[in-house]
Every structure is written in C-alpha cells, then in structure tokens.
Amino acid sequence: MEWLRGVTTLLAEVADLAMPRRCAGCGEPGVLICALCALQVREASRLPPFRSVPDPCPNGFPPAWSGTPYTDVVRRLLPAYKDEGRTDLRGLLGAWLGRAIAVAGSADPTVAEHNSLGRSVYVVPAPSSPAARRARGRDPLRDLVVTALDGDPAFPVIDALGYARRVRDQAGLSSSERARNLGGALRVRPRAALELSGRVCLLADDVVTTGATLAESARALRSVGVVHVVAVTLAATPRTTTGSRAAVRRGPASGTNLSEA
Questions:
Q1: How far apart are CA 163 and CA 98, in angstroms?
Q2: pTM of whole model > 0.70?
Q3: How far apart are alpha carbons 138 and 124 in whole angstroms?
Q4: What CA–CA distances, in Å, run from 4 to 16, 43, 89, 92, 93?
Q5: 254 falls in which pLDDT band (50, 70, 90)?
Q6: Contact residues for 219 (Cβ-Cβ < 8 A; gap 6+)
C-alpha cells in the first residue's frame, strides 16, 4: 500500500540521522511516527487525489490537482519537513505529491496527449524566496518533486522560476494581500524561457491555500510561451468559513466531494 511504503521509507531514511527519535506528527518521544499519527497518515492516503480550487479563485489560476487535504497530521508533517529539518519525511510527503502528478498526467487531456505521444512535460517547482533557502540551507520543495517523480523521464524537472523583486513573507496575509504581494514578482530565467516556449508544464508546489503563488507562477510561465500549465500539489487547505482556502472539488479521479458547502 502506498501509505505503508511511505512510512517504510521514512523509517529507513531516519535510521542514519543523529537526532532524538520523536514522532514527526505529535512529538511523542521514542518513535519516528506514533500509532495515532500513523493511523491519520493511513486515512489521508486512502483519499483519492482531487481537483482543488481556491475560493475566491485568483485570476489566471491553473487547473490544480492535490494529493491529500492539508488537515490533521499532514498540517504537522509538512512544516516539520520544511522548517524543522525532518528530511526523513521526504519519502512519505513525496508519495502524496506523486499521486497528484500521476492523476494530472492522466486526467488532464493536454498532459495525457503529450504523454501518449512521448513528448516530455516539464515539471517546474514553485520558487522559494532567497531568504527561505538561506534559512533552510536547502530547497525542500524541489527535493519533494525529485522524490515524487523518481527519475521518470517523461517529466523532466526544470528550475525555471525566480523572483524579480523582493516580496513580503506570505504567512498571515489574506488572499487579496497575497495577490498584491506576489503580483508581477516572478520571472522565468532566460535560459529556461527558451526551453519552455511552446511546451506543456506541470507547476509543482506544496500546498494550495489562496492560490496566489500558483497563479503568479502560471502567469510567468505563460508570458514566455508555455502553452498549457497544470498545477500539482502535495495538499490543499479545505475551505473554511473564516477565510479563503482551497475548495476541494469532485474530479474525474475522485468520487468524493470533500469541500464544505
């Protein structure tokens, strides 16, 4: 089972790490992932990938597929991986992103056609800010993308996006504030622009929240001639009544509508 493979990978990768053993989900000492958190991982992995649409949806937001809802244990595992050095979680989190990529590759007609014709579909990770990369000493999203693809030659990874100007930290910003903060902030690197013109791309990110990052990333890609952009994310935040979040919608691969009415 996919969730079990991810947990097994987690256990194998962490064996060589010189760190105290604590549950990545709840902090319980003496275990890599406790029984309760493992159960939540299993439940999250039973849900099929789904189409995710922010509400309100920003202009230019691409079709997006997400691997699991950003709730419960997933909300704790991803920050632990990104900001607390829990690189042992890469296999587990990468499996959820990989599910979204697999569904997008078959459910989106343009991507599916390219795959059937043997044409490469480039995978473009959403960029981290220079400050975030310096603080973390790595690019956790790109590592997840590479893990999720597992060397699949049909989906080459290209680091195409960068920042054209400084932006504020997105944490705590509303959907409209995020849109203003990121509007026009991203660019495609010149060498990558030549490679991507006329191509189909999967735009990879960790979580869909307001959709501002994916909308701005898609705008930058389209500006250099990318003809079709589909977003794939590890997770999506369910819509709430107190703020703008991603609405989980029924898609071809999902028989369950997980959005709040």
A1: 26
A2: yes
A3: 17
A4: 20, 11, 13, 9, 12
A5: very low
A6: 60, 186
